[in-house]
Amino acid sequence: MTKKEKIKNVLRLLDENYGNIECYLDHENAWQLLIATILSAQCTDDRVNIVTKTLFKKYKTIQSFADASLDELMDDIRSTGFFRNKARNIIKCCNQLLYDYNGEVPSNIDDLTKLAGVGRKTANVILGNIYKTPSVVVDTHVKRVSYKLGFVESQDPVKIEFELMKILPKRHWIRYNTQIIAHGRKICKARKTECEICFLCEYCEKKILKK
Predict the structure, then answer these.
(1) pLDDT tens-digit readout, 63-92
(2) Looking at the domain 3-21+136-203, which fold is it?
(3) Could you tell me which CATH number the domain at 30-129 has?
(4) Count of CB atoms within 10 A of residue 78's CB?
């Protein structure tokens, strides 16, 4: 089987088992998703959703985040971890949105990555989910599962992003992330893989089967 055939089969199985999955972070607009994604660094999506449920009721606009008290915002997001840096970045990012982008979240990766606290992962989340621009988001699940499948060789998220862009059909870029997250949470877990029930097992180069 060629690598191209393998990729085609894996993507077909992902579609059959997970279909189109909506973004895991709760949001009503672009700036809310941007802030939620900044908060998601080294934090679970479930925890972020718990925090933002209250956070977005307290801070209802970009301006309110830009004007926020640093100490108060740190307390508001403390449970997401790394709250000092995240709070500083959110306040600075929202000021940038107001004064550099007229209160709009940019729609291209170059401008997005100029924002405080925004790397390529966060930028691609915005591009794919808000602007429907084909993009590859590399989180811990995508990094781990893609490597085990033999899709990528690197351990560097940026290099992985470009490796996946070369081999995955563009139409599949956006949903690959959410499908792999689902797979990484349910079956191909970081601490305990369940290879025996994995529908991708035959295509995995790192599978561990019980004897």
Answers:
(1) 999 999 999 999 999 999 999 999 999 999
(2) Endonuclease Iii, domain 2 (1.10.1670)
(3) 1.10.340.30
(4) 14
Q: What are the extents of the domains in the chain?
A: 3-21+136-203, 30-129
Topology agreement, domain 3-21+136-203 and domain 30-129: no
Q: How far apart are CA 95 and CA 76, in angstroms?
A: 19
* Phi–psi pair at 188, nearest 5 degrees: -90, 65
Q: Which of 200, 156, 169, 189 is nearest to 10 (CA)?
A: 200
Q: Which of 86, 121, 143, 148 is catalytic?
A: 121
46 is catalytic: no
- 8 catalytically annotated: no
Q: What amino acid is encoded at 106 in this protein?
A: P
76, 86, 139, 143: the catalytic one is 139
Pair 178, 201: CB distance under 8 Å: no
Query: What is the reported pTM?
Result: 0.92
Angle between helices 173-186 and 157-167 (to 10 degrees): 120
pLDDT digits (tens, 9 = 90+) for 120-142: 999 999 999 999 999 999 999 99
Among candidate residues 140, 104, 136, 141, the one with its CA nearest the CA of residue 120: 136
